[in-house]
């Protein structure tokens, strides 16, 4: 049953328990599953190496057609097989940690026959520690125990299983109306009592109750367009990527899914990037998930309360870990032979000056929702602003974490301006102590510097960096963060140049068109495509923005999931999957389009509306 083919990234579904996630292919094969946490070593990693990574597959032993779907407004995944003999469904889920009275360390698999009988083959091949651990297997009264020197898992199964060459196989035949359960008990749940049907009902109820809901009366929901359910699913994605105890949100549940097949742009995204803060808070708050927005805010404010803002990293482990040393796993082939496979991320050691402005945007956003800052939190904010005063003239690696040397990136300078601008506004509005005259002077100096050195009159656009010939999609954000109004000619010119030089298939936007110090290319960046839609929406080009958003939605897979990047004109995904920033972009684009079309906002105006002085709709 084992083969050396790779399942396309876009065909995977995913489940999780708010501490970790699993990716499941259309053949009901669990091909990626780190445990106990998202950034932990893997139990299954066939997505990175079908021969060495390990999998847990339950699928028909004859030709079949398959389809994925989630139970409505849940993260319970159903894979339905249709064979010549009948139809069977595999239902996969994990109980959300700390939210219901069920063991979080159990992965449940329910096999149900609708028409039949249907025979399904089981292949159980755990490979701990990214396939590096020595494994042993033994039979137990309940099923099969797989263990290494450091850990073990127990597969409970209602069928006879065979162990051969560190691989477990079996066959189950189900009749119409029959259901059978397979339980993967991970460390911590070996002896936990579980009733599978109760766990499924409780998990389904939890997700249904958590998901964004509204009356869908026209004008009552900010997400009331045709993309309403996509925004709901994007919220469910963000929740699965949120660590229940820490409140941090992972950029993606995977590592090393390549930005170009066979290339080296393969990164570990199982960490929290500070640059995501402002847009994440905005997305969660407007979907009505205020508890998650507040928990996320608490997480990054705790990170910020350090003695020296210079020590702030662009990214952290989900528990606040600072040591994210990048390693290469040479023994793994990589997805479709894209090497190296990496764990950890060296970008944690880079200097990225944009993070300070993004943190201030997040603080400002939370204050709009009546959150207050205590003295220690304000001291942290003030120290960040004062640090920016000292370092804004420096070069850095930029938001895209280039590995070709530091530059004076325009977006980094603008976000330094944002740090001063939001710091001034927050101190003024709430009466916090601050050297406002000095801050005003620095803010004005940064703006003057960017306008003089960042805009190229001959090109008619803000460039990627001072003296650069490259165009960068971050130019779309300048009006959204309030640096210039949307009706400024330089803003509109920049949008036009980006549309001309970086856009494929009418909506897919490349991040930039300059050299970044790495070989090979990459797909179009979904988040940047959302930024274009946002810029058009708030520039009064509403019909154009709507048309492009609908075009972008055609790239979202049937499960409502999308990766970091897509290939124009195809359904091929690149990069880690599903990508939090892509789904954040979708939520915020739906929000802006809802606003410009007259749908009610659930709270205060978001960025771009509050800060960017949008243009009234054009016919």
UniProtKB/TrEMBL annotation:
<protein>
    <submittedName>
        <fullName>Glycoside hydrolase family 15 protein</fullName>
    </submittedName>
</protein>
<feature type="domain" description="GH15-like">
    <location>
        <begin position="238"/>
        <end position="590"/>
    </location>
</feature>
<comment type="similarity">
    <text>Belongs to the glycosyl hydrolase 15 family.</text>
</comment>
<dbReference type="InterPro" id="IPR011613">
    <property type="entry name" value="GH15-like"/>
</dbReference>
<dbReference type="InterPro" id="IPR012341">
    <property type="entry name" value="6hp_glycosidase-like_sf"/>
</dbReference>
<dbReference type="Pfam" id="PF19291">
    <property type="entry name" value="TREH_N"/>
</dbReference>
<feature type="domain" description="Trehalase-like N-terminal">
    <location>
        <begin position="7"/>
        <end position="192"/>
    </location>
</feature>
<keyword id="KW-0378">Hydrolase</keyword>
<dbReference type="GO" id="GO:0004553">
    <property type="term" value="F:hydrolase activity, hydrolyzing O-glycosyl compounds"/>
</dbReference>
<dbReference type="InterPro" id="IPR045582">
    <property type="entry name" value="Trehalase-like_N"/>
</dbReference>
<dbReference type="Pfam" id="PF00723">
    <property type="entry name" value="Glyco_hydro_15"/>
</dbReference>
<dbReference type="InterPro" id="IPR008928">
    <property type="entry name" value="6-hairpin_glycosidase_sf"/>
</dbReference>
């Amino acid at each position: 049953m084992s083969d050396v083919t790779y399942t396309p990234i876009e065909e995977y579904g995913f489940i999780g328990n708010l501490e970790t996630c699993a990716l499941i292919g259309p053949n009901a094969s669990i091909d990626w599953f780190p445990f106990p946490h998202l950034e932990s070593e893997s139990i299954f990693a066939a997505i990175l190496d079908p021969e060495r990574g390990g999998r847990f597959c339950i699928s028909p032993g004859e030709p079949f057609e398959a389809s994925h779907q989630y139970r409505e407004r849940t993260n319970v995944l159903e894979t339905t097989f249709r064979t010549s003999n009948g139809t069977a469904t595999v239902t996969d889920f994990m109980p959300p940690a700390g939210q219901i009275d069920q063991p979080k360390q159990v992965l449940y698999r329910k096999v149900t026959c609708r028409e039949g009988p249907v025979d399904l083959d089981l292949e159980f091949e755990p490979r701990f520690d990214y396939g590096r651990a020595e494994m042993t297997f033994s039979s137990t009264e309940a099923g099969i125990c797989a263990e290494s020197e450091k850990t073990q898992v127990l597969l409970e199964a209602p069928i006879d299983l065979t162990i051969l060459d560190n691989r477990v196989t079996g066959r189950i035949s189900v009749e119409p109306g029959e259901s059978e359960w397979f339980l993967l008990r991970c460390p911590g749940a070996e002896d936990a009592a579980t009733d599978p049907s109760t766990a499924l009902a409780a998990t389904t109820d939890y997700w249904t109750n958590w998901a964004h809901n509204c009356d869908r009366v026209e004008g009552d929901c900010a997400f009331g367009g045709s993309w309403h359910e996509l925004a709901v699913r994007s919220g469910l994605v963000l929740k699965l990527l949120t660590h229940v105890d820490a409140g941090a949100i992972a950029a993606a549940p995977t590592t090393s899914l390549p930005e170009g097949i066979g290339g080296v742009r393969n990164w570990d995204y199982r960490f929290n990037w500070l640059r995501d803060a402002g847009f994440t808070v905005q997305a969660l708050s407007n979907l009505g998930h205020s508890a998650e927005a507040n928990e996320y805010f608490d997480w990054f404010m705790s990170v910020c309360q350090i003695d020296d803002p210079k020590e702030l990293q662009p990214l952290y482990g989900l528990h606040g870990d600072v040591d994210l040393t990048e390693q290469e796993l040479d023994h793994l082939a990589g997805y479709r032979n894209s090497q190296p496979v990496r764990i950890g991320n060296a970008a944690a050691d880079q200097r990225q000056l944009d993070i300070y402005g993004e943190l201030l945007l997040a603080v400002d956003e939370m204050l709009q929702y009546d959150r207050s800052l205590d003295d220690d939190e304000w001291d942290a904010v003030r120290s960040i602003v004062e640090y920016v005063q000292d370092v804004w003239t420096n070069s850095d690696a930029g938001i895209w974490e280039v590995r070709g040397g530091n530059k004076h990136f325009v977006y980094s300078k603008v976000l330094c301006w944002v740090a001063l601008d939001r710091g001034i506004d927050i101190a003024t509005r709430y009466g916090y102590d601050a050297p406002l005259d000095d801050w005003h002077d620095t803010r004005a100096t940064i703006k003057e510097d960017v306008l003089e050195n960042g805009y190229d009159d001959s090109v008619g656009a803000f460039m990627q960096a001072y003296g650069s010939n490259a165009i960068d999609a971050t130019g779309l954000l300048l009006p959204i963060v309030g640096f210039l109004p949307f009706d400024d000619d330089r803003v509109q010119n920049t949008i036009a140049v980006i549309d001309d030089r970086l856009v494929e298939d009418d909506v897919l936007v490349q991040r930039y068109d300059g050299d970044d110090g790495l070989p090979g290319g990459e797909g179009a960046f979904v988040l940047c495509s959302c930024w274009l839609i946002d810029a058009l929406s708030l520039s009064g080009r509403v019909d154009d923005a709507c048309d492009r958003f609908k075009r972008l939605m055609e790239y979202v897979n049937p499960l409502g999931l999308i990766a970091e990047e897509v290939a124009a004109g195809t359904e091929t995904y690149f990069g880690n999957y599903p990508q939090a920033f892509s789904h954040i972009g979708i939520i915020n684009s739906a929000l802006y389009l809802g606003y410009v079309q007259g749908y009610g906002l659930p709270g205060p105006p978001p960025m771009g509306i509050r800060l960017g002085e949008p243009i009234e709709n054009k016919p």
